[in-house]
C-alpha cells in the first residue's frame, strides 16, 4: 500500500531542514525480522538541531514514531502513518572522557561496549549482549547478563515533540524493568555512561564470554527480534513458553525458536501478522497453562494490512 505523499508540503514548511525526508519508504529492510509496510514519511535528521527544528515546525496532528536499528521491533504490514524518525550518521559519535563514555543514540550497543573496553573502562560490558542501538537501550532500559542501562547511565539527551532539547538525569528517566517513565514523545539523541577503571584484558575476556553465551543459546543468525516477552516477576518467560508446549510452534512462516523459545523467527516469507499472531498464540497458551499473562517486550508499531 502507499500513503498520501506528505513530503512536498513538509519541505515547503521547512526551508531550513537539512536531513532527508523520504515518502512511502519501505521499513522491512530496516528491521531484523525483515517484515512490515512502509513509513508514510521517513526522516533522517542531520543532528540534534535539525531534529529539533523539524519537530518544532511539524504540525502537531502528525504522528511521530522513532525507530532504531530495528532489532526489537515489529512493523505491521500496513505500515506506519505519519513520520518515522531514524537517527543516522549525525548520531554515531562516541567520546571517552575519563571513565565516562558519551555516545550518540544511533550507535550500536556493542560499539559502546568495545569503546569502553579499549579505554579500560569496566561496567559497560553488558552492552555487548544487547542487540540494537543506544536509543533503544534507553527507551527499554535494555539489559543483559546481570546489568541494565539504569546501572550505568549518568544522563540522556533528548528532543521533545515541540522541538525542545532536554537533558534527563538517571533519576529523571524513571527506569523500571525493560521500561522507562520518560515521556513517550521524547526522541533520545545522546547518552552518557559512567564506568570504573578496569583492565582491558579482563574486560575483553568478559565480553568474549557474553558473545559465546549468546551464540550458544540464542538464534542470533536468524531473522529474529530478540527476546519477545518480558520475564514475569520471579519467572522466566522461556520456561513458561516451553512448559506450555510452544517450542517450535508455527504460524505461517513464523516460528517459536527451537534453540530459545522466547525468540520468534521469520523462516522466510513471513508477514508481520504471522509473527504477531504467533506471539499472541503463545501468550494465550501460556495463560491457559500457567495463569501467567506474558507482556510483550518487542515493540509493535503501525497498522495491520487493510
Describe the structure.
With 306 residues, the protein is of the alpha+beta class. It folds into three domains: 10-86, Uridine Diphospho-n-acetylenolpyruvylglucosamine Reductase, domain 2 (2-Layer Sandwich); 91-216, Uridine Diphospho-n-acetylenolpyruvylglucosamine Reductase, domain 3 (2-Layer Sandwich), CATH 3.30.465; 219-289, Alpha-Beta Complex (Uridine Diphospho-n-acetylenolpyruvylglucosamine Reductase, domain 1). 27% of the residues lie in helices and 27% in strands. It has helices at 7-13, 48-57, 109-118, 134-140, 170-173, 200-217, 237-243, 272-290; strands spanning 20-26, 38-44, 64-67, 73-75, 80-86, 94-97, 100-104, 121-122, 143-144, 147-148, 153-159, 165-169, 175-176, 179-180, 187-194, 196-197, 223-224, 250-251, 254-256, 264-266, 299-301. Strands 6-7-15-11-12 form a five-stranded antiparallel sheet. A four-stranded mixed sheet has the order 1-2-5-3, with no helix packed on it. It has a four-stranded antiparallel sheet with strand order 17-20-19-18. A hairpin with a 2-residue loop joins strand 9 and strand 10. Helix 3 (109-118) packs antiparallel against helix 6 (200-217). The radius of gyration is 20 Å and the shape is globular. The model has no long low-confidence stretch (mean pLDDT 96).
Amino acid at each position: 500500500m502507499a500513503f498520501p505523499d506528505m513530503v512536498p508540503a513538509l519541505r515547503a514548511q521547512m526551508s531550513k531542514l537539512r536531513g532527508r525526508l523520504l515518502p512511502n519508504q519501505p521499513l522491512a529492510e530496516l528491521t531484523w525480522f525483515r517484515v512490515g509496510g512502509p513509513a508514510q514519511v521517513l526522516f533522517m535528521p542531520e543532528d540534534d538541531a535539525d531534529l529539533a527544528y523539524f519537530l518544532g515546525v511539524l504540525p502537531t496532528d502528525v504522528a511521530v514514531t522513532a525507530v532504531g536499528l530495528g532489532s526489537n521491533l515489529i512493523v505491521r504490514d500496513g505500515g506506519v502513518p505519519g513520520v518515522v524518525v531514524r537517527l543516522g550518521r549525525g548520531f554515531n559519535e562516541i567520546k571517552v572522557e575519563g571513565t565516562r563514555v558519551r555516545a550518540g543514540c544511533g550507535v550500536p550497543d556493542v560499539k559502546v561496549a568495545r569503546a569502553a573496553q579499549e579505554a579500560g573502562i569496566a561496567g559497560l560490558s553488558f552492552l555487548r549482549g544487547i542487540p540494537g542501538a543506544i536509543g533503544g537501550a534507553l527507551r527499554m532500559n535494555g539489559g543483559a547478563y546481570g546489568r541494565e542501562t539504569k546501572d550505568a547511565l549518568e544522563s540522556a539527551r533528548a528532543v521533545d515533540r515541540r522541538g525542545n532539547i532536554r537533558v534527563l538525569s538517571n533519576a529523571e528517566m524513571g527506569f523500571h524493568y525493560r521500561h522507562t517513565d520518560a515521556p513517550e514523545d521524547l526522541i533520545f539523541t545522546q547518552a552518557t555512561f559512567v564506568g570504573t577503571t578496569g583492565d582491558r584484558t579482563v574486560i575483553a575476556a568478559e565480553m568474549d564470554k557474553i558473545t559465546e553465551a549468546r551464540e550458544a543459546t540464542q538464534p542470533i543468525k536468524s531473522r529474529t527480534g530478540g527476546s519477545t516477552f518480558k520475564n514475569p516477576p520471579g519467572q522466566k518467560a522461556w520456561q513458561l513458553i516451553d512448559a506450555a508446549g510452544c517450542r517450535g510452534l508455527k504460524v505461517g512462516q513464523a516460528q517459536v525458536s527451537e534453540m530459545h523459545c522466547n525468540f520468534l523467527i521469520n523462516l522466510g516469507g513471513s508477514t508481520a501478522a504471522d509473527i504477531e499472531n504467533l506471539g499472541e498464540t503463545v501468550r494465550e497458551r501460556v495463560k491457559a497453562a500457567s495463569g501467567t499473562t506474558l507482556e510483550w517486550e518487542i515493540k509493535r508499531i503501525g497498522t495491520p494490512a487493510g
